[in-house]
Amino acid sequence: MVIAEIKGLQKKYKSTQALKNVTMELKRGEVLGFIGPNGAGKSTTIRILLGIIKSSGGAAKIFGKDVWKDSIEIHKRLAYVPGDVNLWPNLTGGEIIDVFMRMQGTKNDARRDELIQKFHLDPKKKARTYSKGNRQKVALIAALASDAELYIFDEPTSGLDPLMEAVFQEEVENLKNQGKSILLSSHILSEVERLCDRVAIIRQGEVIETGTLDELRHLTRYQYKVTTRDVPIGLKQVSGVHDLVINGKEAVFQADIDQIETILEAIMPYHVTKLESVPPTLEALFMRHYTGK
Amino acid sequence: MKNCFNMTGMLFLHTLRRDWLKLLIWAVALSLFTGGFASAMYEIYGKDPAGLMAMYETLKNPAMIAMLGPTSATAETYTVGAMYAHEMILFTALVFAIVSIMHVVSRTRKEEDDGTTELIRSFQVGRLANTTAVVIEMLLLHLVIIALSTGLLQVQDVPGMDFSSNLLYSASLGMQGFLWAMIALIFVQLAAGAGSARGLSFLTLGFFYILRMATDMNAPDGSWFNPLGWSYLVNVYVSDSWLPIVIAFVTSIVFIAVSYLLEQARDLGAGYLPERAGHAHAKERLLSLPGLVLRLQKIFIIGWLFALFICGAMYGSIFGDMDYFVSENEIMKQMFLHNSDYTIQEQFMSVLFVILSLLTTIFIVGSLMRLVNEEKKGHWDQLYATKLSRTKFYWYHVIMASILGVVGQFSAILGLYLAQRSVMETPLSFWEITKAGIVWIPAIFFFIGILSVLIGWLPRFTMIIWAYLLFTFFISYFGQMMEIPEFVTNLDVFSYIPKIPIEEWKWGAIILIKLLALFIIVIGFIGYKKRDLVSE
């Protein structure tokens, strides 16, 4: 079942087109990673999904409902953590968490207290004394303690230390195990790699790739490192081999995924003694999409 | 519109919880401001018909009408109430408008800019819920103020000020507060951010204030088309008309509807008015610490210099009628004619500069306070991390505050001089007024000194300076009327300053205070140089 369905979403401002074509979907029980550089349109997309700003073209539905017209109905089943959390300076963190949970519609004090403990938040302090990380914790605790079907996180860990980041990841995994759906926008690619079932990559207002990590990897090249008994001169002529560097009997090259068979056949005559292949990291994918390398 | 108001009640309670103390203080302060002076006015002017007539003549002066608005009363119907309303209603309306604009913008657009609204909207909260909560809050606040102010006026039981008029007077001001809150709400939708929403609201307020100056003098009917005009057009204590309140109320409803429509159709964080793009690069003059500090305070400085000039001009504009006014009024005679060597104006001026100097002091305390306030907000952190030394930070701010103190005082002097020159037959010379004004500068510097020590040694308790300022104000204002022990008066630095021209210029005291100020500024510096930086 599809939780969120976004088709050809556009957002025009007077002189700029912030979103050109955002198309992606989030299925039930899935964690969708939403990655892209600053200014690519991640937050704009999320704000449209929340009905906070209005799209100027395309369609976006959550739970089968229009994100602008039925935003209240949608919000009853959703929890959100923005990247930049701003709180009322004269209320304490604990008070704010309660206010947020009330507005979300959940009452679960035990879960709340457990999370406060896990995130090491001092709920008695006024929000004005909190650092960015602590403000983020307030929003995270309120969201994670909420009983929602869809969780939207917009760079939720940008202010957290690695320990807290781990706590967050653990909580997201719990949600995933409970069959909740999660949209996770993030810069921390290792986090996305670990948590997400599928990834959508956005560039200049356009989603240019979506798919599982494996699917994305298929679009790109694996890196091979071979050691042979004879110098593998013949590799130079094989199509599908790129960036070949031969250093004596060692060769390093990028291989097109659909040419592996031909390439391997071509190296066999040189007597392979060692073969390593490295799947591209998300970072390599990301860099390739943005810098073209 | 479906669900647009979802959770309004909850948000309203939440807003109240955040604001209740502030609102309570405002309600009390504003009610005191509206209704608190009636019996004092009665004591001074009202008991004596001649005094009332003198006030009538004074306030009929075009300069006074320009500032305070007109009265519909004739010489026969100019009662204490009529005078009270005449003197108070427009100015109080301005105060109400300012408070409303500040609050509405900070609770709506400011939160939107901060990103808080975004988080709130992600819950099942309607698009118009927050705005509606603020509308309800403002309505409630002004109803409470109307009740308190009416009660306050009733309790004072001034002859000729009855319940229905008291209610109308309070309602007129409460209505102004609500009306301007709704006007601000429209600019909240139109503008591209909290700063410009606030700026546009104040610009509108200023525009209507000046517009009514013109219409009040030349075409009184024109003031019916002016939201500020609806304050004094109720003709309270003269012919009591509720019509302007009805008009203002209906207009407020229209404004609410308009702002709803505007808010519905716009994106969060967006506005309708284009925002002027800023400079892509800093100009050269911004790239030094003095340049930066000056730029950060630009609006503040310009605003204060203008305000001081206007205050000087306000006092100066009544110089012309003073002879007549005082000769007609027994109490005034006693107050002013105890020294027949000097004219009324000279005596008045000597007292006047206590007030003007206090205003200048508020100005420079506000300016120097930035040194520590910006530190608390963490704005200096990145600058402290550069080669800029604390020595520079400290002395730039102190020197700037000192220069501003002198400039501010001269702004008031200039306003006073120009205004009195236009209304008096034999005006005072610029030098006479300057002497009366600059004699206070050492006392103003003394405040810089005290604040410096606080900044250097007790950065978390810099608010103490306001208490001392309040104390000085109290002693200067009421000191003569009340029996205050001498050792208390001696704590007031203003009490050492000779009141020029009726007292003699004292070089000794003036130089001593200056040296003392410099000395404590240095003490403050020693503390500032070695203390930890503070944050909120």
Describe this structure in words.
The complex is a heterodimer of chains A (293) and B (536). Chain A is 32% helix and 31% strand. Chain A has 293 residues and is α/β, with parallel strands linked by helices. Chain A folds into 2 domains: 215 residues, Rossmann fold; 71 residues, Alpha-Beta Plaits (2-Layer Sandwich). Chain B has 2 domains: 200 residues; 244 residues, no CATH class. In chain B, helix 5 packs parallel to helix 9, helix 9 packs across helix 10 and helix 15 packs across helix 16. The mean pLDDT of chain B is 88. Chains A and B meet through helix 2, strand 6 and helix 3 of A and helix 1 and helix 7 of B.
What would the keywords be for this entry?
heterodimer, A: 293 residues, alpha/beta, Rossmann fold, Alpha-Beta Plaits, 2 domains, six-stranded mixed sheet, four-stranded antiparallel sheet, 14 strands, elongated, B: 536 residues, mainly alpha, 73% helix
Q: How are strands sequenced across the largest beta sheet of chain A? A: 6-7-8-3-9-10
In total, how many domains does the architecture of chain A comprise? Answer: 2
Could you tell me how far the N terminus lies from the C terminus of chain B, measured between alpha carbons in angstroms? 42 Å
- At the fold tier of CATH, the topology name of the largest domain in chain A is Rossmann fold
Share of residues in strands of chain B: under 5%
Instruction: List low-confidence stretches of chain A.
Output: none
Oligomer: heterodimer
Q: Biggest sheet of chain B, open or closed, and with what strands and sense?
A: none
Low-confidence regions of chain B: none
Question: What's the helical proportion of residues of chain A?
Answer: 25-40%
Protein name (chain B): ABC-2 type transport system permease protein
Keywords (chain B): Membrane, Transmembrane, Transmembrane helix
Transmembrane segments (chain B): 88-106, 127-148, 168-192, 199-215, 242-262, 299-318, 348-372, 393-418, 438-458, 465-485, 505-528
Protein name (chain A): ABC-2 type transport system ATP-binding protein
